[in-house]
Amino acid sequence: MPSELYRHTYAQRAIHQKNPAAKLLLETIERKQSNLAVSVDVTSTRDFLAIIDVVGPFTHIDIIDDFTPSLITDLQALSVKHDFLIFEDRKFADIGNTVALQYSSGVHKIASWSHLTDAHPVPGPSVVTGLSSVGLPLGRGLLLLAEMSTKGSLASGLYTEGAVQMARAHRDFVVGFIAQRRMDGVGAGPEEMTVEEDFIVLTPGVGLDVQGDGMGQQYRTPRQVVLESGCDVIIVGRGIYGKDPSLVENIVAQAKRYKAEGWAAYLSRLEL
Ligand code: BMP
Question: Which among 62, 65, 22, 70 is positioned nearest to 177, based on CA atoms?
């Protein structure tokens, strides 16, 4: 039988997580009563920090036009001030040696400040061992992209099963998935099916007002994602900051709306 743990509270599930970033994520969600991650895909430092000062982030540090290392200092200060985790959506996808260097070094030095990051499983287990050699000693956690939100995504079927098997073999560092549904038990052999696993699932492609963006993105509601598909965190970008990242009042209002929807869906899930 697949695990039923996702119907426990975030706090109960935090107790059993061995990876410190996974534990911290679930504890923070419970403490803040928010399963919302805001995807801050803006290109200027000013807009980036202004948005993060009002909402918790999921970042793409490589799209900032005016990046300087002080941005990271500011981001870390906001993470402490507002009690949120940072997830750099880097989508690593190279051989182990290269991803280890990309994660630790270069201009961005992602491992030194991002609690969580993610990788495509396409290179095989070496992408995990490479990232783990850098991230595990720092208490970081990794999510594998088991599925994508985009129309025509190739991440399905056996590929998705392979991603989950890869995660199962590296449970100390892989804390869960970027996916569209609960992944416990996926691709598991008969013996593994009896194991109570509890992967955390973060889900992009969440929107309340539109169903797509004309560039392949597909949106579902927080209720569909959290209640019907068993995912844990809703990742919302343009649904919150819209077309104009400088309209802070609007961002706050939309963030509250998505936060309320995500939490209501979670509470309904507990009643199932
Ligand atoms: P938006 O809500 O504006 O569509 O943004 C979604 C965010 O989630 C983007 O930052 C995108 O890179 C990311 N994302 C996604 O949309 N689908 C995936 O399958 C994986 C992602 O990381």
Answer: 22
Reduced to 3 states, what is the DSSP secondary structure of residue 153? coil
pLDDT band at 194 (very low <50, low <70, confident <90, very high): low
Q: β-strand 141-145 against 57-59: which pairing, if any?
A: unpaired
pLDDT one-digit tens code per residue, 156-173: 999 999 999 999 999 999
Residue 191's contacts (CB-CB under 8 Å, 6 or more residues apart) are none
Q: Is 161 in the pocket of ligand 1 (CB under 6 A)?
A: no
The pair of structure tokens assigned to 254 is 């939309």
Beta-carbon count within 10 A of 139 CB:
12
If one counts every other C-beta atom within 10 angstroms of the C-beta of residue 185, the result is: 16
What is the value of pTM for the model shown?
0.96
Residue type, 227: L
DSSP letter for each residue of 37-60: EEEE--SSHHHHHHHHTTS-EEE-
How long is the chain?
272
Is 57 close to ligand 1, i.e. is its CB under 6 Å away? no
Quick one: which atom of ligand 1 is closest to the CA of 60? Answer: 10
Catalytic entry in 47, 89, 118, 232: 89
